[in-house]
Amino acid sequence: MEPKVICVLLVVFSLALSTQAQDQAETCTVALKQRVNCGFPGVTPSQCAEKGCCFDSTIPGYPWCFYPLKVDNVPEEECEF
Question: For residue 2, what pLDDT is reported?
Answer without folding.
Answer: 75
